[in-house]
Design a protein that fits this description.
Elements: E1 2-4, H1 7-19, H2 27-38, H3 42-46, E2 51-54, E3 60-64, E4 76-79, H4 84-98, H5 107-123, H6 138-150, H7 157-165, H8 170-173, E5 179-181
Helix pairs in contact: 1-2, 1-4, 2-4, 2-5, 2-6, 6-7
Length: 197
């Protein structure tokens, strides 16, 4: 179990990093907050081909580019833990730093290019407020823990996890229950309904 003792501080740190993001930042400092606030996989954020289209609600985007779907991926709506403008600022800085040639690389190449350095930075505390010994993929689980607390879902925990992370079965979602947020306080339900009716 990974315990986030001060979730508000972790989210504030990620938002602050996105707010001041520029292409001069290291790849790790750009990628880590993007992973936390969107719940996407490292390669989905870094391959240059995934798209994030704003929705009328500032905390939602239409995400296209989901991996692990064997050619059957379709765009779907996901919640963001920060307003789209903040997320977009960080993503734009990352894309500018990467250059257009990143789109020509395979997903495996992209993963190998970024994962090691990003994990080292995460282990060194580059994402302020993140627990020690957390791994890149744990940020996806942390994202869901935040989404579960900050949005109001009409579904059970497992069904919500399945929907938000884009899983085909609830069985896949069982591995995303190893992060607990403490002292959630007034963050609970603060972003309103998970999806519009």
């Amino acid at each position: 179990l990974i315990v986030v003792s001060d979730p508000a501080a972790l989210l504030r740190g990620a938002a602050a990093s996105l707010e001041c993001a520029t292409p001069k930042d290291s790849f790790g400092h750009l990628i880590l907050p993007l992973l936390l606030v969107s719940g996407r996989r490292l390669t989905e954020i870094c391959n240059g081909r995934s798209t994030f289209t704003p929705m009328p609600n500032t905390h939602r985007v239409l995400f296209d580019g989901q991996l692990k779907k064997k050619g059957r991926a379709v765009p779907y709506e996901i919640p963001l833990l920060v307003p789209f403008a903040l997320f977009e600022r960080g993503l734009r800085a990352l894309r500018e730093k990467q250059g257009v040639q990143v789109c020509e690389r395979t997903n495996e190449h992209v993963k190998n290019l970024y994962q090691g350095n990003v994990q080292r930075l995460l282990s060194k505390g580059a994402l302020r407020g993140a627990p020690e010994d957390i791994h890149i993929h744990d940020l996806r689980t942390a994202y869901f823990a935040f989404a579960w607390e900050m949005f109001v879902s009409p579904w059970s925990f497992s069904r919500t996890c399945c929907r938000v992370l884009g899983h085909e079965t609830m069985q896949e979602s069982l591995s995303y229950q190893n992060v607990r947020l403490e002292m959630v306080g007034n963050m609970r339900g603060s972003l309103g309904p998970l999806f519009e009716e």
